[in-house]
Amino acid sequence: MKFAYKDLINLLQVKPSKELLSEKLFQLGHEHEIQSDIFDIEFTPNRGDCLSVWGLARDLNAFFGKSEAIDIFKENFDVLDIDFENHSPSDCPKISFLEIEVEEISNNYKPYLESYFSIIGNKKTNLFTDISNYISYELGQPTHCFDRDSIKSKLIFENKECNNIFKTLLGSEITLKDHNCVFTLNDEVISLAGIMGGASTACTNKTKKVLVECAFFNPESIIGKSIKYNLISDAAHKFERGVDIASQEMVLRRFVKVVQDHATIKSIKFKSFIETAEKSQLIPLNIKAINKILGTSLEDSECLGYLKSLGFDVSNEIKVPSYRNDIKTNNDLAEEIARVIGYNNIKSKPIKLKKIVFNDVSKVSKLESFLVRNGFSEVISFPFSSKKEKGSINIDNPLDSNRDNFRTSLKDSLLESLLYNERRQKDSIKLFEISDIYKNNTEIKQQKKLGLIISGRLGNNYNDFSKKLDFEYLNSLLNENDITHIFEIIEIPRSGLDTKRKDKIYYVEISLEDIPTSFFQKLDIQKKAINFIKYKPISEYPSSTRDFSFSIDDSKIVNKIIEMLEEISDEIIKNSFLFDYYRDEKTQIVKLGYRFIFQSQSKTLSDSEIKNIVNKILKPILEIDGVSIPGM
Amino acid sequence: MSNLDDIIPPATLNQPGTLHPINQTKDYILRFLAEMGFKEVHGPEIETEEFNFDMLNIKKSHPARQMHDTFYVGDKKNVLRTHTSPVQIRSMLESKPPIAIASAGKVYRKDDDATHLPMFHQVEGIYIDENVTFANLRYLIHQILHQLFGDNVEIRFRPSYFPFTEPSAEVDILSDEGKWLEILGCGIVNPIVLKNCNIDSNQYSGLAFGLGVERIAMLKYGVNDIREFYKSNLDFLTQFK
């Protein structure tokens, strides 16, 4: 919610700087951003009482002192003769009406009202609606203005089953469904209570006689409705969090005062309908309990002083102010006291938990380490799927229809990950995922599964470069540990997939509970410490591959040449490796195949750029006697 | 002259793979919590509304329970857990204080935009014993943040609101650029939650905290876009060696 800095300090006795105000707002738990003269504050949902300048000034009272009172109309009201019935007092225990008739309306708003529009950036509509919005900002209590002349029959508040179209005062048409708290005239819905008024009874620039409705609606009666009907409503936001049940008359008196500032008033009439008298929340005085929660040793007088500064009445019991519907227990009071002291000023006290004995490394950890050592990388996928299979658990409110089931296998998401990497020029892919899988046949069953997927080259080293990852590879990897009987390696056909590659794809899925303990006993796993590397953003530019075939006459220098190649580094070299090694037994000539993959973070590399860097990095090697690249 | 047959062909090692950075971070947090005395517990991702909400004092009218925030499954019989807190409820029901447990894993919210994912990871801890206080919570949170961000990190507590803790706090650290970054939520366990778990709230009190694993991983590794973690891009994943 946006507050003008000037409005806030206007209600404070001591005028804090923006910096000090900001610091104290954070101390009180009111997260915010400052944009020049505006404090944009995000309140926690329990603090409906702070959703106004007056309410926030109350919370800041402990530090800066709030102004004594707001200027209101103090005379007695004439009684309003209104034909009204409240058919649902449990939704609306208190409601008041104010009728004002004016002669002339000034087009010039007083500075305090004008700045609500100019500084905060709200849109003007007509005087009465503008005042209603301003008062909600100032005091936190929404009011609704009906054009008095449009209310010609009995006005009823009711919670009723609706199935009709309602046109809001902002012009949108919504279809009301199920039960809604509404105001009706002759069975016609004229206002969605606590959320938005209707077009048929709204005030206009011509309105001279207004009926202002000011109520306390139960939060439960309002919650969810503005989202249901996709209406952005300041009133709903406030009623959902709870307004001050004791404030309605004061708010309407303020309303009169602001109208007086802007128009000549002909008549003022008022009537209140109170179904249930408000009850004060009382908490027995127990400072010891509060110290026990906080771990402090505060004096009684200190604690009570803090509570008084927040508007609590303190005697033998603590009386919670009517606007603090969030305070019910000593834990709540402890938080209030801690807010005024400042959480950061509460001294920390050491605790020592009992040391626990470390369990052995878990099965999952062992399995992960085994796979990582063998070149597999772990992926984590979202578990949503479009496939409805036997035992699939359906999501009632999915993000979209492609994600309306919980997956029953890791296969599809692993396949998707594999194809994604193939499209990104990866030619040797080994991925795994370990995740719980859920199925519902007669009851919901949870199983931890491992999925493995492979395609492409066996590896980049010269022994593996021209071999493929295949059935045998996967089989022997797992077979090594004698678990052949519990899994089935399947080949995933490429037909029907969005792919041009020809390499075969193999997949295997294993339930962890099926893997015998003997498998894990054979694994020797040392858990390594985490290394928080600094991540390098991935380039979105294409990579270029260059292969070089070296001919080396003297076998003795081969290892030195390889070392030199391995030491080459440059910011555009993404990867490099020895993919071919051949020694002619007769001539003793050694042929090396070495691959460089180039990629820039900032552009697509041109042929000549690559050529330049190649010449630079290979020069020292080619200067060595007996080393050449045939054809270069 | 050396014997040519002695020349050893170059080694043929292949690169190892990598564990997912989110799991690495999660395991790291769980490990140091274990060293502090928090025992790891597990629970299901598909939960009842009772365990995910009611037992945690999240009332029917709470916005989090609306269809736009929570995934409901199996004809609204269950939910995808929105936090790992129900695991702690299950553990509290099964044991007696003192209790010191940590739960970690996937959680779900009905969200999908540049900074929110429908699935992410949490680590939560809870400690219940006699005389556990807010001052103890301050101590423990400092321990955790020093472990994660070094002994010199500047820490700020702010009052906040969670239905299952009272008092509640959010905790920020000061970044190198001088900005406060929200790191975790914590508080004194609401006595209502203890009562729900058959723990005598006159005798026992507790503290609880929860961290978002993605947030910690992003800060520690310098990843700016949360979506990178779930693209399964090997150029990304293999950096986390």
Task: Give a description of the structure.
The complex is a heterodimer of chains A (632) and B (241). Chain A is of the alpha+beta class. Chain A has 5 domains: 2-64, Phenylalanyl-tRNA Synthetase, Chain B, domain 1, CATH 3.30.56.10; 78-274, Phenylalanyl-tRNA Synthetase, Chain B, domain 3; 281-345, Phenylalanyl-tRNA Synthetase, Chain B, domain 1, CATH 3.30.56.10; 363-522, BirA Bifunctional Protein, domain 2 (2-Layer Sandwich), CATH 3.30.930.10; 544-628, Alpha-Beta Plaits. Chain A is 28% helix and 27% strand. Chain A has 18 helices and 28 strands. In chain A, strands 4-13-6-12-7 form a 5-stranded mixed sheet, with helices on one face. A 5-stranded mixed sheet of chain A has the order 5-8-9-10-11, with no helix packed on it. In chain A, a hairpin with a 2-residue loop joins β9 (173-185) and β10 (188-192). In chain A, α5 (127-139) crosses α9 and α10 (287-294) crosses α12. Chain A is elongated, with a radius of gyration of 37 Å. The relative contact order of chain A is 0.07. Chain B is an alpha+beta fold and 241 residues long. Chain B has one domain (18-231): Bira Bifunctional Protein, Domain 2 (BirA Bifunctional Protein, domain 2, 2-Layer Sandwich), CATH 3.30.930. Chain B has a 7-stranded mixed sheet with strand order 1-5-6-10-9-8-7, sandwiched between helices. A 3-stranded antiparallel sheet of chain B has the order 2-4-3. In chain B, a hairpin with a 5-residue loop joins β8 and β9 (180-189). In chain B, α1 packs across α6. The radius of gyration of chain B is 21 Å and the shape is globular. Chains A and B meet through α2, α10, α12, α13 and β17 of A and α1, β3, α4, β7 and β8 of B.
Specify which chain pair forms the largest interface.
A-B, 105 and 96 residues
Q: Could you state the order of secondary-structure elements of chain B as H and E? A: HEEHEEHEEHEEEHEHH
Q: For the largest beta sheet of chain B, what order do the strands appear in spatially?
A: 1-5-6-10-9-8-7
Helicity range of chain B: 25-40%
The fold-level CATH name of chain B is BirA Bifunctional Protein, domain 2
- Strand % of chain B is 25-35%
- Based on helices, strands and strand pairing, what is the structural class of chain A? alpha+beta
Q: How far is it from the N-terminal to the C-terminal residue of chain A, by CA?
A: 70 Å
Radius of gyration of chain A: 37 Å
Largest sheet of chain B: 7 strands, mixed
Shape of chain A: elongated
Level-2 CATH architecture of the largest domain in chain A: 3-Layer(bba) Sandwich
pLDDT < 50 stretches of chain B: none
Distance between the termini of chain B: 42 Å
CATH architecture group name of chain B? 2-Layer Sandwich
How does the helix and strand content of chain B classify structurally? alpha+beta
Low-confidence stretches of chain A: none
The CATH class name of chain B reads Alpha Beta
Number of strands of chain B: 10
